[in-house]
Amino acid sequence: MSNTERFIPSEHFPAGTTVPQREDIAEILKKYDIGAADEIELIDSTRGEDDIRLNYIIDKKYVLRFCNPQSMTQTRLEDLSRLVERYRAAGIVCPQFVKDREGIYLNAWNGLRCYLQEYIDLPLASEKDLRDPERLDEELIESVARFAERYKNVDLSETFGMYSLFDLSPFDVPEGIDEKEQNFRMLLDVLRDADAGALAEKLSARHADVRKDLKSVYRGLPRCVFQGDENFTNILIDEEEHFAGFIDFNLAGTEVVVNQLANLAGFDYLEEEDSAVGAQKRLAHAVEGFRDRMTLMFRFYHPAETERQALVRYAWIVMVSRWPEVCLFRCWIEKTDLKDEALELLSLIVDLPEDCLEI
After folding, report:
1. What is the tens place of the pLDDT at every residue in 163-204?
2. Which of 112, 154, 261, 328 is surrounded by the fewest CB atoms within 10 Å?
3. In order of start, what are the domains of the chain with their CATH numbers?
4. DSSP structure string for 10-72
5. For the whole model, what pTM was predicted?
6. Which of 153, 147, 142, 144 is nearest to 89 (CA)?
7. What are the residue ranges in the chain where pLDDT is below 50?
């Protein structure tokens, strides 16, 4: 939601919490030696009481962000600032974080935390009816692979990315388990509710074996710090709709490189086919697409043999516990005409030979 005259937050903004007004913003901007703003636009991307996100666009030059997660600290912003500098050095457009006159990024206001970034006047991919989204997607994954090759094991952050297994991102800490584990448990519950308990147990056993193998090796694998949420809502494009850069570093963090790439590759089970087409066809399409995208990324990122071996296991975890895939399985299982096909597809994944995912 945006509003240039009255700063009205979205329906997700918690009642009773004060919203900064023009005079409050003016006082904060003074700390950054910025004069009175002519135009201020509020974009509220708040997700709930524990995740407030107010973004004030200042004359299309800066974005003043208010938030409340405890994980957003001066140290965190210093880490993110260095990450932005690496992206910019690699030719990827990203908004810089701005220090105030005291050399501080983070300030406090009425129980919230605020910080200032540049405003990048480029469109987001999600705002355009793209002529060639597949080309843009290829440009995106190529850029991530090139970045990983250039900056693997460089200045790693103590904050972990949202894809990480075993090590918890700030958003995982309240639950005490990584997001993939949460997603997978949800899938098991869906299967049990659908009277597919035997399949759930078989899937759980394979999942446990894969995670055990990964846990024994993942600490020795190359890592990199990534923006971490590389979807079209966070991707800047130029006039020709080519990939230009990133915004939104809330989920940035350290990640095992091949895990990051596996999550970007993903698995397309022919989601657009909303009627039965056959479990074998869906699996073949998903595996072929994954291999094609990973092959493209490995043209620019050069993995060691240990990474190639781990990739197979990371990929299998993605197949059954990345959020989009879990949502898709749940949707299909709840549909009478697709339930059997979805269950057959998961049965095929349980028994999928590892060499099918090798690159």
Report:
1. 999 999 998 998 999 999 999 999 999 999 999 999 999 999
2. 154
3. 2-118 (3.30.200.20), 125-357 (3.90.1200)
4. -TTSPTTPPPP-HHHHHHHHHHTT----S-EEEEE---BTTB-EEEEEETTTEEEEEE--TT-
5. 0.93
6. 147
7. 1-5
